[in-house]
Design goal:
Ribosomal Protein L22, Chain A
C-alpha cells in the first residue's frame, strides 16, 4: 500500500557545469557531507550528485509536505538507495526508492508510505 509516489529527472550536465572544487557551498546546501564524500569517490561524481538530487526531489513530491533538502539523506544498502529523513518528518514515512543514470540524465523514483 502506498500513500505517494514521486519521480524526477535531472540532466547530469547541470551538476557537471558547477564543479565541486569551485563551488562546494552549492553542494553543501543540497547534500549532507557523507553524501558528498560518497559522490566524490567516483570518477564521474556528477552523475551521482544528479541521482541523489533526483531522489530528493522525488521524496519531496511523494510526501507532498514542505521538507528541506538538508532533512533528506540518500544512503545505500546492498547497492540499493535508501531514504533517511531528519527533522520534523523523521519516523513519519517509509520509502522505496529506485535510481538510474544513463544517456546524460539521472532518474529517481520514490514510493512513500505514511506511518503516523
Amino acid at each position: 500500500m502506498t500513500d505517494g509516489i514521486g519521480v524526477d529527472i535531472v540532466e547530469i550536465c547541470r551538476f557537471k557545469k558547477i564543479k565541486y572544487n569551485a563551488r562546494p557551498s552549492f553542494y553543501k546546501k543540497l547534500f549532507k557531507q557523507n553524501e558528498i564524500d560518497y559522490c566524490l569517490k567516483f570518477k564521474n561524481p556528477y552523475e551521482h550528485f544528479a541521482g541523489k538530487f533526483a531522489l530528493k526531489e522525488s521524496v519531496k513530491k511523494s510526501i507532498n509536505e514542505d521538507i528541506s533538502f538538508s532533512d533528506i539523506e540518500i544512503t545505500y544498502s546492498d547497492s540499493k538507495p535508501q531514504v533517511v529523513i531528519f527533522g520534523n518528518h523523521k519516523n513519519k514515512y517509509k520509502f522505496l526508492a529506485s535510481l538510474t543514470h544513463d544517456a546524460g540524465v539521472a532518474i529517481g523514483v520514490v514510493i512513500s508510505k505514511k506511518l503516523l
